[in-house]
Amino acid sequence: MEERSAGMWPRPTPLVGDTTSARERADDPSGWAFGDDVIEALDAVIAGRRDIRRFRPDPVPSDLLTEVLTAGHRAPSVGHSQPWRFIVVRDPSVRDRAAHLADRARLDQAALLTNDRAARMLDLKLEGLREAPVGVVVVCDRRTPAAGVLGRATFPDADLWSCATAIENMWLAARARGLGMGWVTLFDPDELSSLLGLPEDVVPMGWMCLGWPDERPPTPGLERAAWSKRLPLEDVVMEDRWFENVDAWAPTAPVSHLGAAHVGDGTHAGHVAQALPAESLVAATDTADGLLSPAESLGVLDRVVSRVEALGRGVMPLTGTLVLVGAAHPVAALGVSAFEERVTRDVLEAAVAGSAMGAVAARSAGLGLVVIDAGVPGEKPVGGALPARPLDLRGDLSTTDALTRADVDRLLATGRRLGEGAARTGLVALGEVGIGNTTVAAALACAVTGLSPLDAVGVGAGADSDIVERKRTVVEQALARIGPRATAWRADPADLLAAVGGAEIALLTGVVLGAASGGAPVVLDGLAGSLPGVLAVSIEPSVQSHLIAGQRSRERAHAEVLRLLGLEPLLSLRLRAGEGVGAALAASLVLQGLKIRRGVARTQ
Ligand SMILES: O=C(O)c1ccc[n+]([C@@H]2O[C@H](COP(=O)([O-])O)[C@@H](O)[C@H]2O)c1
Ligand SMILES: Cc1cc2nc[nH]c2cc1C
Questions:
Q1: Does ligand 1 have an atom closer than 6 angstroms to the CB of 530?
Q2: Is the CB of residue 154 less than 8 Å from the CB of residue 146?
Q3: Residue 569 has pLDDT above 80, yes or no
Q4: What is the pLDDT of residues 103-125, one digit of tens each?
Q5: How many angstroms separate the alpha carbon of residue 576 from the centre of ligand 2?
Q6: What CATH number is given to the structural domain containing 408?
Q7: Does 467 fall in a domain?
Q8: How confident is the model at residue 269 (pLDDT cuts 50, 70, 90)?
Q9: Is residue 12 assigned to a domain?
Q10: Which residue range or ranges hold the Nitroreductase domain (predicted)?
Q11: Which residues pair with 208 in a beta bridge?
């Protein structure tokens, strides 16, 4: 028994909760501290935490993942509400679709920045999303009314802050174990929510890439990239109130790099196909990193070459095929082109003879050529071209559908077969010819990007202002006629192709699908030669990682279409040649890039 003085009783020590007494706490206020070694370790982990953008493909052991998630789940939360939920993503096709969303958001964001900042932002790595073996999407379940959670009635967003603390815990826990984590918020939150099927009021906080880091940055990446520096502590600490010592210093607003205003675009969804293998992408960037040249010194071309090497697993042949498709367009009868319809047939015949510009460009790039007659003017298919003509009569898009659904399905199927065949040769480049098809392409571009006809219609092969005016009217009529079919294009891209056309775009959409399923990179061309990429991605989202924007052409809506695809063009030459000329020029650049990658001296 404890000795006690008269009139004093022992302190009743609680059996649960805090067992310390007021006396103990008063005698030793710092007695709750961990030892110096723990403090030192914690400070080291906090100081050494980095936002990791590059990952090794090696798997994250499940016990380590659980430890990281446990750290997240131990975070503080408002009213002990634990509003976080962790969605662990390992499915490569979901990851690829998220990466496409991020690619697009990256271009959208760059468009908002000043030129220099945009270039630096585009230089920053986003491939981490494709490389990291695990993605953890931290979402905040906000379905409970704020007033029902202690502390949220007054600060309704405190649930989001709670989730942010969970993320920081995960970050530190990962870092301490040698794992890297990257918090990616370059998404339209609605798009990410629909990708993951989140219910209303469950909001994503971002995508955490998790894996073994393929970089060990001593300082933050954005500081290393000369984006910004950590502010001195004095600049962020104030005494007693905001701005009190104006004379000494005035806190400045966080730096903004915003340039001109810009409009974004909509959502994406569809079926799942084969995804880009993360380990081959890492292997390709490993090779690039080992060259006797600064990292990513070839800019956009370096990234394209890494993609191509990843798809070809380092043994991509230094050649490929230009698939050139010609088709007629009844809309040409409405005076929307400066040229006669028969030119389409002439060009296809010249292509077979090897002298159309696209054919010459393909040959000089070292590519093979496949010429397809998808219904050019004239009774008989062009001799020497593969016939793939629509069977039924077609209408001009302003008053009638351009194609029947059955023909669209046939064109897609034929294209797939051809694309699979072309994939076996290496790169697959797209080419089209069709007098009147920039009107068709403008209507498609309006449907898929939400551009107005005024902003989408361009000069095509050389229209004057009267022709441009007629093109706009036709596109307006077409969009008014098809109404909701335009907005529903993601759910049924083949229906949009039936409504608007054209046969060459439908066939090339099949080519993209077939080439991608054969594992080939696909080089897009101008406006009509890029829309097949958009439509194919809406059918099979993982096609996106196979696409290369060969060029940004002179046609008006092209830039917006590339932004929708999340792609940066290799060339910007104001081309309007069609026929795959731009795709062939870009393909030759890519092939040269591959030779450089494979030939340059390596470092240890
Ligand atoms: O590649 C482009 O973006 C491009 C831009 C303008 C015109 N074209 C070519 O010109 C043709 C369509 O022009 P138009 O004026 O008849 O609609 C078609 O054969 C296309 O290959 C192609
Ligand atoms: C001559 C000519 C060649 C073409 N190739 C693709 N579109 C074309 C349009 C014209 C007019």
A1: no
A2: no
A3: yes
A4: 999 998 888 888 888 888 887 77
A5: 9
A6: 3.40.50.10210
A7: yes
A8: very low
A9: no
A10: 46-212
A11: 136, 183
User: For the chain, what is the total number of helices (H) and then of strands (E)?
Assistant: 23, 10
| Complex prediction ipTM | 0.97
Q: Is 432 in the pocket of ligand 2 (CB under 6 A)?
A: no
What DSSP designation does 546 have? G
Ligand 2 within 6 A of 581 CB? Answer: no
Supply the CATH number for residue 150's domain.
Answer: 3.40.109.10
d(CA 167, CA 192): 18
Phi, psi (5° rounding) for residue 387?
Answer: -80, 130
Q: How remote is the CA of residue 461 from the centroid of ligand 2, in Å?
A: 7
Q: Could you report the per-residue pLDDT of 130-162, keeping only the tens digit for each?
A: 999 999 999 999 998 888 888 888 999 999 999
What pLDDT score was predicted for residue 250? Answer: 53
Report H helices in 488-580.
Answer: 493-500, 503-517, 531-539, 558-565
Side chain identity at 435, as an amino acid letter? I
Strands 386-387 and 180-184: unpaired
pLDDT at 249 over 70: no
From the CB of 529, is ligand 1 less than 6 Å away? yes
Backbone dihedral angles phi then psi of residue 543, each to the nearest 5 degrees: -60, -30
- Ligand 2 within 6 A of CB of 446: no
Strand locations in 78-185 (E): 84-89, 134-141, 180-184
The verdict on 356 and 492 lying in the same domain is yes
The SS3 call for residue 23 is helix
Query: Does the CB atom of residue 555 touch ligand 1 within 6 A?
Result: yes
Beta strands in 243-284 (DSSP E): none
Is the same domain home to 214 and 341? Answer: no
- Asked if residue 363 has pLDDT above 90, the reply is yes
Does the pLDDT of residue 99 top 80, yes or no?
yes
- Structural domain count of the chain: 2
Structure tokens at 46: 């906090």
227: confidence class by pLDDT, cuts 50, 70, 90: confident
Which residue is associated with the tokens 């920053």?
Answer: 124
Verify that 341 and 487 share a domain, yes or no: yes
- 598 within a domain of the structure (yes/no): no
118 CB burial (10 A radius; 0-12, 13-18, 19+) = middle
Domain range spanning residue 530? 318-593
Reduce the DSSP state of residue 205 to 3 states and report it. strand
**Do the beta carbons of residue 374 and residue 326 sit within 8 Å?**
yes
Q: Would you tell me how many other CB atoms lie within 10 Å of the CB of residue 356? A: 27
Residue type, 5: S
Neighbours of 270 (CB within 10 A): 17
Q: Which of 324, 433, 437 to mutate to test the pocket of ligand 2 (most atoms within 8 A of CB)?
A: 433
Longest dimension (CA), the chain: 119
* Residue showing tokens 């503080």: 76
Residues 566 and 428 in one domain: yes
CA 46 – CA 69 distance, rounded (Å): 18
pTM, 2 dp: 0.83
| Domain boundary residue, one of 202, 220, 238 | 220
Residue 184's SS3 state is strand
Instruction: Examine residue 249 and state whether it is found in any structural domain, yes or no.
Output: no
Please check whether residues 64 and 177 belong to one and the same domain.
yes
> How many CB atoms are located within 10 Å of the residue 477 CB?
17
CA atoms within 13 A on the CB side of 275: 21
E-assigned strand segments in 225-362: 320-326
